[in-house]
Amino acid sequence: MLGSPLKSRQLLHDEFGEVKPCLREPRDLFAFFSSSGPLQAPRWPIECEVIKESLCHIEWVPPQPEYFYQPTGNEKLPEIVGEEKGTVVYQLDSVPTEGSYFTSARVGGKRGIIRDLAVTLQGPEDNTLLFESRFESGNLQKAVRVDTYEYELTLRTDLYTNKHTQWFYFRVQNTRKDVTYRFTIVNLLKPKSLYTIGMKPLMYSQLDADTHNIGWRREGKEIRYFKNNTEDGQQPFYCLTWTIQFPHDQDTCFFAHFYPYTYTDLQCYLLSVVNNPVQSQFCKLRTLCRSLAGNTVYLLTITNPSRTPQEAAAKKAVVLSARVHPGESNGSWIMKGFLDFILSNSPDAQLLRDIFIFKVVPMLNPDGVIVGNYRCSLAGRDLNRHYKTILKESFPCIWYTRNMIKRLLEEREVLLYCDFHGHSRKNNIFLYGCNNNDRKYWLHERVFPLMLSKNAPDKFSFQSCNFKVQKCKEGTGRVVMWRMGILNSYTMESTFGGSTLGNKRDTHFTTEDLKSLGYHVCDTLLDFCDPDRTKFMQCLAELKELLQQEIHKKFNELGQDMDLEGSWSDISLSDIESSTSGSDSSLSDGLPVHLLNIAHEVNQKKKMYKKKKKKPLQTRKQRNEQYQKNNLMRELKLTEDIPERAGFASTLQKQPTFFRNSENASSSAMRNEKPRLNELHGRDKGSSLDPSKMTSLILTKNKERMQTEKPGFTVSCSPKTSTNPSQEPVPDMKPSWSRNRYPAARRGRAAMTVYPSLHIYTYP
């Protein structure tokens, strides 16, 4: 081979250029990043226009707490006038909505020249704001100028849907200092919002970032959240309005619902991990799958190398994920805090890597994050309602996540699963879990949340946790993983607002607060698995006491006074807890849009060919009795079948008045048949059905018929399955078993008498 002219890049060459008889090490199939190469550019649906500018925001922690807005009662309620009385200064043209569906994607989105959608300024004195949202994670559909410094804004719905307007992130330019601007978002869909209880929007000034290193901060006055009274026959809309003064003239500013964390931000972070010579030793980056648009869904496996195979097999697993809902960027900040700690050289982090294998999916829905969706993927559906799906091509991200966890469960115990989310109606951070029905592990699923509340008392609220499993949540990751066997299966909900607890009371959360939660998850995991079970048992005792108090409270609310001593622990936990309807839940919308028509056709075909199923018999005894009755009927009928047919034929020929006499004939036949039916069903008053007699009767008739037609054939039966224990088998004879027991009965031929009757045996 070495002397042949075959050329291969896989063969090694020494310093003299001679080929060595060995192959190169295989290239790392998952080496996505290199220090010299560029990041993978995000892929957009081909309908989306994308500007060429790349945006980058600095991380910054405000030196002082950012308190909630305190309403004065004098906030103005603006009148919504719309574009009829205003001037459209920004509007996206080609935006896929309900009725269309995703077809393909490419880097850079729509082909062709990217137009400037903002208005053209008439001169330096023109103070019209210039809007833009065609960048990664951006969301703004339209801006209407209704007064000199007042704008009405319309958010874009999630692509290929007509709903889910919550997330906003857009840019404004050509600002003026010391002037009060008013912005009003006019098409929000949720009747309740944290903006009603003091939450402020986020603003970012590019000049402040460049000159003073100041990043995102909470801004806004005269904040109101109210119902839009414009009646157009559709679902009701809600409005968010606020006023603001920009810090500089001619500045570039950004507004957002929460701190953005884009797909590119994630890739930059993962690049730093891959290029770190220490972290890359215990953190392996892989491709879990590709999204609908072809963007990579990353999977991190974090654990210290084991010394022996037995040590590796003994490790339990922990599974964490985030951003299944793309507009809930707070999940990414908690995930970043977790990764920062678990990849550090802290002794606690090293201990966790020694005893656990961490499987981390940091961004489950990259397509939705890229295009600026709030809740859905490019299938136009909420992925967190489809974890039971079999549609791998339509929901690849969660299908492969569930499959990965399923394989992991076959290898080892998964101690904990947690999916990081955001919440738009409740403050603080809390968990949703699943009540355990096994009394051996009663209340154990509540220990981890209680420990977390003790480790982060100013951020995490155990009182807001809920463990009820509702039918509408059966498709969520939390419930599906719980039903797969993970006892500690959670959804972590982090508010878009802030805390109402401890020394952080009435203040907004910063990115540092959220990242600290990631650290507290690690800290609580160590407490939860401490070989010294003191903390665990203390929490369990506290949980029992809290639950008993809750039960007494429920009975008092119902006006009942009941002694629960000794029996209170038998009460169903689901009856005590309220539902999680306060969550940002949405019912499953069903199949992805592009499959709706196909599914309708399939269902129609199923209805056409659907057969009515017989009700199965419940016991072996019933099956045997029914089997014997049916065959006895066939035998009795066959004994009279031939003469009856002959008589019937002659009757047709000789008696033209047959139809007039058919009533008498049928009634006579019924009288003759009735004793047999009574005998079969055991309804005769003077007799009952004896299986041994029935068996003898059948054997006798079969023998007579068989010997008449084939004199040399002898019927035999096996003693192992006979229903009559007194019946002895014929010696030195083997039963002749036939695969097709009753062809004559099915085909209606008299040839049935050729076969031995084996129906006296019971089913196995």
UniProtKB/TrEMBL annotation:
GO terms for cellular component: centriole; cytosol. GO terms for biological process: proteolysis. Residues 650-670, 715-727 have a biased composition (Polar residues). Keywords: Carboxypeptidase, Cell projection, Cytoplasm, Cytoskeleton, Hydrolase, Metal-binding, Metalloprotease, Protease, Zinc. It is found in: Cytoplasm, Cytoskeleton, Cilium basal body; Cytoplasm, Cytoskeleton, Microtubule organizing center, Centrosome, Centriole; Cytoplasm, Cytosol. InterPro entries: Cytosolic_carboxypeptidase, Pepdidase_M14_N, Peptidase_M14. Residues 605-621 have a biased composition (Basic residues). The keyword Protease applies. GO terms for molecular function: metallocarboxypeptidase activity; zinc ion binding. This is Cytosolic carboxypeptidase 2. It comes from Mustela putorius furo. The lineage of its organism: Eukaryota, Metazoa, Chordata, Craniata, Vertebrata.
